Amino acid sequence: MKKISVETMDSMKKEGVDTSKNWIKVGMSTCGIAAGADVVYATLLDEAKKRNIEVVIKKCGCAGKCFAEPLVEVNVEGLPRVTYGKVTAEVAVTILERHVRNKKLVKDYIFF
Amino acid sequence: MPHKIILVKDTGAVENKGVDFNTMLANQLRDSGAAEKASIVPVADIGVYDKGLVLRILPDNVTYSNVREADIKKIIEQTVLAGKIIEELSHDGRDKQLRIVLKNCGLVDPDSIDDYIRAGGYQGLRKALLELKSQDKVIEELKKSGLRGRGGAGFPTWMKWSTAKNQKTDQKYMICNGDEGDPGAYMDRSVLEGDPHAVVEGMIIAGYAIGASKGYLYIRAEYPLAVKRIEKALEDAREYGLLGENILESGFTYEMEIRLGAGAFVCGEETALIASVEGKRGTPKPRPPFPAVKGLWDKPSIINNVETLAAVPQILSNGGDWLAKIGTATSKGTKVFAITGKIKNSGLVEVPMGITLREIVFEVAGGLLNPEKKIKAVQTGGPSGGVIPKDFLDTPVDYENLGKLGSIMGSGGMIVIDETDCMVDLAKFYLGFCVDESCGKCAPCRIGGYQMLQLLNKISNGEGELADLDKLKRIAYAMQKASLCGLGQTAANPVLSTLKYFEDEYKAHIVNKKCPAGKCKYLLMYKIGEDKCKRCGVCVKNCPTQAISGNREKGFTIDQVKCIKCGNCTEVCKFEAVAKE
User: Fold this and answer.
1) Among B185, B408, B483, B518, which is least packed by CB within 10 angstroms?
2) CB distance A31–B190 less than 8 Å?
3) Per residue in B464-485, pLDDT tens?
4) What domains does chain A contain, in order, with CATH numbers?
5) CB contacts < 8 Å between A and B, how many?
């Protein structure tokens, strides 16, 4: 990496954080990891590759809703952005298949 | 017309039991020929509580609360088919939270400096170094913003900075206090883990403002993930030229290092923290001289809390006036609380100053864990704070108001207490914590705390006398007046505030030898009620000390001498025949 210039900083700010259309974010702070977010994150990465589903999978910090960890926020083109709570490895796979591939919301796990 | 999605949260408030609401809604959708135009998705939580049945329709993003069977048709016709919003049903969805410090938590990847810059990061630093180009102007922005220390005492940040800036010396230091030790509080951890660059940027700006060339991040070793993420953040910032020599070509040079705390609560106190950074045993020193004049290695040093520093970059990039618009007359901006205890949605909330405790507990955090129980009090400020009884829940939260009520803002721990919690037990817990964590340097804290704990033990064991209450107060005042540092001065606060508001409860322990909440086990007695007992014998099998004797013909009794009051028998009894007295 090289020293960053003010111009680069400005153009990056203009682009914003979420540059891709389809993304998944997993809350990976201590509260999330304690509830099993690391397993969910690994499953998502693994299964997305295996099933050939194109989506950017990122980790992020604690969103504050610690009672519902692990939290997975999903943004897929054509659907409203939702956050799933109390996600397990199984639910993570359902999210990939149903939400990301088939563009349908997964029942019972949406928190807000 | 776009496809509608109806999110349904069944709060168990549907009239017309028998048919569930989703089926009803689906049937109506089909009957009105809208089945193709909308889909129903049941959700786990929708963020609206005690408002009956709640629906949210996307992409309109309109929320309807207290929905009844009769409303379904209207909702389908007007909102789903015609896209109109029904005013009388719509819920005021204004979020009571306001995220400034936690803005990036959950948004950016904490390990990626690019993400942080994309979210508008390091613009505050750039403004300070390349636009304001003056230490005084940076401090002026802080003064305008009215930012006060978020670590607990609420000292105006600009005043600290300006004192250090005016010291004429060859070397100054900037220190970040990440030694968060209050039981149940983890705001700093979440900020360090979720948005480490905000703290790093705040540290660089602060270092520039006071004229320091070196900064220390003091983080407790119990936060390994936070340490790892800060390390990565420092490394990346260095590579981008945002840390180190000649930052952003401005000529300002600044380095930073991490120091790990070894898990001593007293090291959150600034003079003890300084001793710990120097590599000495973490014990406090009398003030003055204040660290801003004579601190780390006898040089002027500023110590700010993680949350304070994380707010600094945005104050610079948005201007001080922006923060000054939020909050009350004396307390500006927002405060992060870690809300735990008998609460439905425990977690972190960031609210503007001036919000009431009732709003935080019942709206932001979803109300009590067991709605059938009554709220008794809210504890703020951890072991240095106090309890705020339910009668004062409508007080707006700011530094002054909480202080008047005998508690403090503190670093942001907030514990909700319901009627099953005993106040003597609570005071005992917090005091016990402070006794454990007392460094032992000064007598009032070392001896006073221990003596008070003995008195509280005596009371909760049923051996208390009324004179003990006066003794408690006398020792508490002595500790407040004579202790060397904040730990000892505030250690008695939980006892004093529970005594102030819940003296009746103390007296019940002393005079009636009863614990009204049923928590103090020496004042309890388990008894089997003859009328309710079905003589099944389950309690006998589950008693760890064989204290229950008898047989299925004659019934069972508990031997009070053998009983250790574990409560197993109450839990296993299906007929609620074992009562606590």
Assistant:
1) B518
2) yes
3) 899 999 999 999 999 999 999 8
4) 18-101 (3.40.30.10)
5) 139
